[in-house]
Design a protein that fits this description.
105 residues; Ribosomal Protein S5, domain 2; 2 helices; 6 strands
């Protein structure tokens, strides 16, 4: 598991191998949850599922795409990050912390 950020802005990414394929689970903030799913296959457009009222696919998609490109295998990224009543600045901080996770893939 890799992490980025501190306190309620801390996000984490867990990796599970399923045969040659990879499952990433993203969570963090005050209430980790499942807000979206992104599926990537080499040389194909990512498939995005956004659960109603959530925007977690925005941070899940770069994770799935980066891993798919690097490892040339199918990748699924699922999860979500939540901070109650987050301001625009707090959301930006969470997004930046998620981008740091992508750098560690």
């Amino acid at each position: 598991m890799i992490t980025s950020g501190e306190g309620k802005y801390k996000v984490w990414l867990e990796e599970k191998k399923i045969g040659n394929d990879i499952l990433f689970i993203l969570g963090g903030g005050e209430q980790p949850h499942i807000g979206g799913v992104v599926i990537c296959e080499p040389d194909k457009t990512a498939q995005v599922i956004r659960l109603e009222g959530h925007y977690d696919d925005v941070v899940l998609k770069p994770i799935a795409e980066a891993a798919c490109k690097k490892y040339k295998t199918k990748v699924v990224a699922v999860g979500g990050v939540h901070v109650d009543n987050a301001t625009k600045q707090e959301i930006e901080k969470l997004v930046e912390n998620c981008k740091e996770l992508v750098q560690c893939i």
